[in-house]
Design goal:
The complex is a heterodimer.
Chain A: H1 4-11, H2 19-22, H3 24-30, H4 58-79, H5 83-107, H6 110-128
Chain B: H1 2-24, H2 38-41, H3 44-68, H4 70-82, H5 84-107, H6 114-145, H7 150-155, H8 162-177, H9 182-200
Helix pairs in contact in B: 1-6, 3-6, 3-8, 4-5, 4-6, 4-9, 5-6, 5-9, 6-8, 6-9, 8-9
The chains are: A mainly alpha, B mainly alpha.
Chain lengths: 137, 218
């Protein structure tokens, strides 16, 4: 930027548009480039995952919750189950799974288990080192 | 830090309660001898009642988690959709690791350190499963009912936003869960995907699990 004319152009480019024809430096910086540019159309851009993400669809949540609760109560009434029995069943099935795993572990030699533990955790660490792709994909 | 606490504190409380309930509940000699035995469970109605009740509990978890940390859930959901195979592999390896680590920790029970280690592992596994499955709900909702264009997004009044996508995914996966035999397998597969996506994105925070050590050039 050399002259006052350049400064005037910077302050108000539209009013001093003729300056670009006089000053080669400003023309190189702010003039129309030789590379043709397309106007950016916002609607043509792909929808970003966060657009509209904060919207909270409470009616949908309420409808689904009501349907699920009513269905659950009706089915439990028909089947003659109480909430405590359902909790018993869930905890019992988890304990059964735990017992099955421990039973399987007892049947295996400890050395095999420890070796498998080491190998699997090395593979896990190797997989965890990969950076997530996420939005860059 | 506050976001992290907001996500992990309630999840940890829920997970710790579940693990405590599992440990503290009287151990049945045989699961079939329980009051709710196989002969009762064989009835389709009872199975459906249990499943629908559990789906209602999952709705609570999905809504709560999406409201508390929607950005993290969305991040894990995007990762799941972009690299599903990696998430599945990571999930399978992680679940195997949980099981083997639990067995190895059980060897340490006589040395006192085994019990707290097992408890912490169980809490971590439950947190990972809950968070991961909610991310799967979101991913499934986004795949099936997510808006593709801005016009579509603007024209929708209900089916938009993280909350709606999570609930939609839950409804779809819950409906699939009700199919006999195949349903539990689909749910288990979704859990593996979920565990993988939760760990791949470090619970949606997209931070590395391990610091990279680089040799300093002189």
């Amino acid at each position: 930027m050399k002259s006052q004319s350049c400064e005037r152009y910077l302050e108000d480019p539209e009013a001093n548009a003729g300056h670009l024809a006089e000053c080669a430096e400003c023309s190189a910086l702010f003039g129309e480039s030789a590379v043709p540019t397309k106007p950016l159309r916002f609607d043509a851009l792909p929808l970003a995952p966060w657009e509209g993400a904060k919207h909270r669809a409470w009616p949908l949540v309420a409808i689904v919750a009501i349907v699920l609760i009513v269905a659950s109560v009706v089915l439990c009434k028909i089947a003659g189950l109480s909430a405590a029995q359902i909790a018993d069943y869930v905890i019992g099935s988890m304990q059964a799974r735990r017992a099955a795993v421990l039973g399987w572990a007892e049947s295996m030699p400890q050395g095999v288990i420890v070796a498998a533990f080491a190998v699997v955790n090395v593979v896990l660490i190797a997989l965890l080192r990969r950076a997530p792709r996420g939005i860059d994909a | 830090m506050r976001r992290m606490l907001r996500l992990f504190l309630p999840l940890s409380i829920v997970a710790a309660s579940l693990v405590t309930a599992m440990i503290a509940a009287p151990q049945p000699k045989n699961p079939l001898d329980m009051p709710f035995s196989l002969e009762h469970a064989a009835s389709m109605m009872q199975q459906s009642a249990v499943t629908v009740s559990l789906i209602a509990v999952w709705l609570l978890a999905a809504v709560g988690l999406t409201l508390m940390s929607g950005r993290e859930v969305r991040s894990s959901s995007i990762e799941l959709r972009n690299s599903a195979l990696h998430c599945f592999t990571l999930g399978l390896v992680a679940v195997t690791s949980f099981v083997l680590t639990a067995i190895v920790f059980s060897y340490l029970i006589p040395f006192m350190v085994g019990v707290p280690l097992l408890f912490m592992l169980a809490v971590f596994a439950v947190i990972t499963k809950i968070y991961g499955l909610v991310a799967v709900f979101h991913a499934l909702g986004a795949l099936t009912g997510g808006a593709r264009t801005r016009d579509q997004l603007a024209s929708r009044s209900w089916l938009r936003g993280d909350l709606a996508l999570s609930v939609l995914g839950l409804v779809i996966l819950g409906a699939l869960r009700l199919i006999p035999v195949v349903g539990p397998l689909i749910w288990a597969g979704a859990s593996v995907f979920g565990v993988g996506s939760a760990l791949a994105t470090k619970f949606g925070r997209r931070e590395p699990w391990f610091l990279a050590v680089r040799a300093m050039s002189s």
